Automatic annotation (TrEMBL):
Domain of life: Bacteria
Entry keyword Hydrolase: yes
Molecular function in Gene Ontology: hydrolase activity
InterPro entries xref list: AttH-like_dom_sf, AttH_dom
Gene source species: Deinococcus reticulitermitis
Gene3D superfamilies named in the record: AttH-like domain (2.40.370.10)
Signal peptide: 1-33
Name of the molecule in the record: Predicted secreted hydrolase
Length: 344
């Protein structure tokens, strides 16, 4: 089971000692340098020797009354490994959000087939299927489309760090989600990501991201990367057509509209207007109160269900999916287990 998230956990003591004093001997090779000329194969989803790596699954399932995301992080800080994962589940019928974090440092990774495991949370590949067992999630996942690499192959910039970026943008999901005392049967379509590289999320870089299923069978990824001061450093958009082919959408603009202030005092843009070649789209959060203060990663972010409407190549479309908006690192006193220089 996930360990209690306090400064006394072994994970917290281990990482604090390493980050602040360099007191521990490195136990894995130093991370490989990012090479923008070596774009990965789309289906090479296994663990890499990277400074930062994560696997991510999210779904906005209105017929089941559930939205969720799961994320598994693998960090190599100067040869010191660290692992964290978390799950957030929203009951779309009541608006209740439950957030669970896993700080266990017993982790295993394998490929092929894909195996991502931390404590008793695990994602495993079994033939053409994937199975996720993580806290409240018990899901079987069947890809509808092949894996893709989003053009130009990564997010970020040399100054802010870069992350290779692969996705399976549609998978059929079925299984159960635990919501309080209720074990709810769920089914619908979900989104899967794998990213890795040399970027430090929340400190070096912040972002506004969408993973969207469109009503014509296409899937849309939007990425707006910002530096620590909030200046936009990269805008990227890719469209995966119904046959599973990814292409860049040029000329993307993401215009902030409505801003919401969280209980922590952070501002998040929750409503957007998007334009790109052949695309106009208005997006809005389905509800506001989705700020998450992750102690295991020391990052504050908003993640929740979004929906919208617009046109693609002149035809009307609707969109549904998840948005993720990173505000930065946790402040002193907010319980972060990772002391990040420059946090305030």
């Amino acid at each position: 089971m996930p360990q209690p998230l306090t400064a006394r956990t072994p994970a917290a003591r281990l990482l604090t000692a390493a980050l602040l004093g360099g007191l521990l001997t490195a136990c894995v090779p130093a991370p490989m340098a990012f090479d923008p000329n070596r774009i990965p194969a789309p289906d090479d989803l296994g663990a890499k020797n990277a400074a930062t790596e994560w696997w991510y699954l999210s779904g906005n399932l209105p017929d089941s009354g559930v939205a969720f995301h799961w994320a598994q992080f693998k960090v190599n800080y100067r040869g010191l490994p660290y692992h964290a994962s978390h799950v957030a589940v929203t009951d779309l019928r009541t608006g209740q959000v439950n957030f669970v974090e896993n700080s266990a440092q017993q982790a295993r990774f394998g490929f092929p087939p894909l195996r991502v495991e931390q404590g008793d949370w695990k994602l495993t590949q079994e033939g053409g299927l994937y199975r996720l067992r993580a806290g409240p999630l018990n899901l079987t996942l069947t890809p509808v489309k092949p894996a893709v690499v989003h053009p130009p192959g990564y997010s970020g910039t040399p100054e802010l760090g870069r992350l290779y970026y692969q996705s399976i943008t549609r998978l059929d999901a079925r299984g159960t989600v635990q919501i309080g005392a209720e074990t709810r049967e769920v089914r619908g379509q979900v989104w899967f990501d794998h990213q890795w590289g040399d970027q430090q999320p929340g400190a070096q870089a912040k972002w506004d991201w969408f993973g969207l299923h469109l009503s014509d069978g296409s899937d849309l990824m939007l990425y707006r990367v910002r530096d620590a001061g909030g200046r936009v450093a990269q805008l990227a958009a890719s469209l995966v057509d119904p046959q599973g082919r990814a292409r860049e959408l040029r000329g993307v603009q993401m215009t902030p509209k409505r801003t919401w202030k969280s209980a922590s005092g952070r501002d998040y843009v929750l409503d957007w207007e998007v334009q790109a070649e052949g695309l106009t789209l208005t997006l809005a959060a389905q509800s506001d109160n989705h700020e998450l203060l992750s102690k295991t990663t020391s990052v504050a972010y908003w993640e929740g269900p979004v929906a919208g409407q617009g046109t693609l190549n002149g035809a009307p479309i609707t969109a549904r999916g998840m948005g993720e908006f990173v505000a930065g690192v946790l402040r002193p006193g907010e319980g972060g287990l990772i002391p990040i220089p420059g946090s305030r």
